[in-house]
Amino acid sequence: MKVTVHRKAHFNAAHRLYNADWTDARNAHVFGKCANPNYHGHNYELIVAVRGEIHPETGFVMDMKVLKHLIETEIEAVFDHKNLNEEVPVFKTLNPTAENIAVVIWNILRPHIEEVLELSVTLYETPRNFVSYSGA
Amino acid sequence: MKVTVHRKAHFNAAHRLYNADWTDARNAHVFGKCANPNYHGHNYELIVAVRGEIHPETGFVMDMKVLKHLIETEIEAVFDHKNLNEEVPVFKTLNPTAENIAVVIWNILRPHIEEVLELSVTLYETPRNFVSYSGA
Amino acid sequence: MKVTVHRKAHFNAAHRLYNADWTDARNAHVFGKCANPNYHGHNYELIVAVRGEIHPETGFVMDMKVLKHLIETEIEAVFDHKNLNEEVPVFKTLNPTAENIAVVIWNILRPHIEEVLELSVTLYETPRNFVSYSGA
Amino acid sequence: MKVTVHRKAHFNAAHRLYNADWTDARNAHVFGKCANPNYHGHNYELIVAVRGEIHPETGFVMDMKVLKHLIETEIEAVFDHKNLNEEVPVFKTLNPTAENIAVVIWNILRPHIEEVLELSVTLYETPRNFVSYSGA
Amino acid sequence: MKVTVHRKAHFNAAHRLYNADWTDARNAHVFGKCANPNYHGHNYELIVAVRGEIHPETGFVMDMKVLKHLIETEIEAVFDHKNLNEEVPVFKTLNPTAENIAVVIWNILRPHIEEVLELSVTLYETPRNFVSYSGA
Amino acid sequence: MKVTVHRKAHFNAAHRLYNADWTDARNAHVFGKCANPNYHGHNYELIVAVRGEIHPETGFVMDMKVLKHLIETEIEAVFDHKNLNEEVPVFKTLNPTAENIAVVIWNILRPHIEEVLELSVTLYETPRNFVSYSGA
Q1: Nearest-CB residue to D99 (from F8, F57, F61)
Q2: What is the domain range of residue F119?
Q3: What is the nearest CA distance from B27 to chain A, expressed in angstroms?
């Protein structure tokens, strides 16, 4: 009997879409205004979902206070009010698309959550564009 | 060819998180301000989802008017403007976490929905904390 | 390693629920005020989700600009500011319930999206009623 | 010491924008796709706001239950699941723009609310287009 | 040249509507299910708005970080996860309607904000019921 | 008899808060993480409101299609996917706080809207921080 608990968080960041192996012209052609070398930015909204059995003593799948704190220390502290391309090392060589950011967040959180629990993340780049990733 | 129909409803209730087998000190330690013996409360938002074949004559998986009425009589009438710990009998001995409330709602609704239809519920305790349960 | 990208769009349309094989009385009995022969309408909100591998060069599962344009040309151009029963031919003989509209949208989009990518659609008829369909 | 209380409601309706004194060509030119003779529709969201002194015995400016019931009987019963042009008599000769609908709603509600209370209405035609009217 | 800055916050609380000068029967008659002696609760959403000149050196009307901190220490610390009737002294004798809570919040915040700045508060008791107060 | 029409739009941009007359240390002290020299960013949501008489022939205060197009050409084309500090000339010397951006937008739009109509703008920097300006 498995239940999924979801916690919503957010961070504000600058980024640009850019493939360092390409010419500037090709970057501009493929990524359009998202390739602007001066950056643009977003209010990212993040939903972290954890699925597992309810612990009979607490009634929790995972204590939301613990999950909230984990997102603050592992994700918000690293991403909030940052330039993703310049200040988050993984994006020196990985294009910070919503897809790649979601996978990076999942990979950061996974070791901090009990192995028996399933993890998925949903990342809103805008209210109209969002992505989700469950590790497979 | 299965489609899922979703109906959103809501109820306002008071609760506290509390394990009767624990000391007050342990309840306060584990549940923090959620263990306040004077209660606090939430605007719960509930999404009930039913999945099945589209009936060829009506174009419905399940008549939303019927589903709306079912949620009103079986859930809202029981939970709305209530103290969950004091007035909903199952929570005399079961801690009314979002996880447990979602499972209780699912168990209440399941016998009222045709067996061939799959049922899942999503319960928002706040806009930032929510849970989902599909019966397994 | 599969990621799902979601794009939100919208269209405003009139419709009525109606089964041409039934008497008006039976239509009124089953569909209630939704059977009003003069029509009513909705702001439909549509979420199209596409799941697949991230392309290593772009960091995209599918270019959101392409997906946005596809929804505009294939769905919005056909459904927006239209009377679904009168002006969208498939609904001459198919009841335009949210369920059937979602299936029709999925069927329209499927051939335009690479076969290797999974497709699902979620359609909000109102903020309180919505449906989803994944092709099976 | 005046406080404003707000109550949110909704209705779904079909309409078209149309000036009967104009040719069809001019209607199409001015109103674009909103002039579609087969109608389109919206989920209208309505916020009714009432401003006045707090009654010292109840703590209410106006009982929300009374306001909710008033909106149901005077507005929702008349507008919901209707074709505004065909079934709401005032719009036989008045173009049902969001502006005009808001004024009509205000005029309907005004006599039902104590004179000493100020009234204003906000009407969302879509989440992106809305109007407000305060009677002057 | 005055600009208004708005900051959104929230707190979860239990309450009941109750006039101590009335019989229980009259309380039940006037306040309906809101008079439940076992309490119910809400996720209150609070918007605090401050209007004034933009400071030419900072570009701020009021530093949002300061406003956020003020709401945390003066409002959230006092109201969050509390039983308003039992644990917030002013509501021992004042009925905790949304109207009265909004006025109480305004009165708490007013002395902490520079006199030259105008203050108003909007309090959502539910997404469908909300009140606003500007001090006059 | 004046009605207000509102149109919602959005743009995504990078910025940093910075006063060029101050040392870096003072900028960091006053603006905190918002002073990050590598920028961060936001999904700005903009509501433009225009108040005036309803034109008796159209039923419009101002044609929403015209207002939508005006926001696209005058605001979105200039601000969307841009670095406000680097690419919008007025912010070379004016700190791009939400307050200042709102005033700049109002000043850009004012000459394009009939003088008899009142104009106000509301700018959401995040869902929790927003500002409004009406020209006085």
Answers
A1: F61
A2: 2-133
A3: 9
Number of H helices, E strands in chain B: 5, 5
Residue pair D13/D42 in contact by the 8 Å Cβ criterion: yes
pLDDT of amino acid B50: 98
A6, amino acid identity = H
Cα C61 to the chain's mean position, in Å? 22
Surface of B (1-20) touching C: CB under 8 A: 1-9
CA C35-C39-C42 angle, to 5 degrees, is 105
Q: Does the CA dihedral E114-E115-E120-E121 come out positive or negative?
A: positive
Residues in chain D: 136
- What's the CATH number where A13 sits? 3.30.479.10
Q: What is the mean pLDDT of residues C19-29?
A: 96
**CA atoms of F94 and F78, how far apart (whole Å):** 16
- How many C-beta atoms surround the C-beta of residue C50 within 10 A? 21
Cα separation, C62 vs A97, whole angstroms: 11
Q: What angle do CA A56, B88, A57 make, to 5 degrees?
A: 10
The identity of residue F7, as a single letter, is R
Return d(Cα C93, Cα C95) in angstroms, integer.
7
Q: Which residue has the tokens 């109906």?
A: B7
What is the predicted pLDDT for the residue at C11?
98
pTM: 0.97
Q: Contacts of residue E15 in chain B, CB cutoff 8 Å?
A: 41
Report the C-alpha gap between C104 and C114 in whole angstroms.
18
Q: Which long-range contacts (CB under 8 A, 24 or more apart) does C61-65 make?
A: C61/A99, C61/A131, C61/C2, C61/C3, C61/C4, C61/C5, C61/C117, C62/C5, C62/C113, C62/C114, C62/C117, C63/A30, C64/A129, C64/C5, C64/C7, C65/A32
Measured at the CA of F84, the angle between CA F79 and CA F88, to 5 degrees, comes to 70
- Number of helices (H) and strands (E), helices first, in chain E? 5, 5
Quick: pLDDT tens for A33-92.
999 999 999 999 999 999 999 999 999 999 999 999 999 999 999 999 999 999 999 999
Count of structural domains within chain B = 1
Q: What is the pLDDT of residue A4?
A: 98
Tokens of D128: 């992106």
Q: What is the DSSP letter of E67?
A: H
Cβ contact B65–C32 (<8 Å): yes
Closest residue in chain D to residue E121, using alpha carbons only: D3
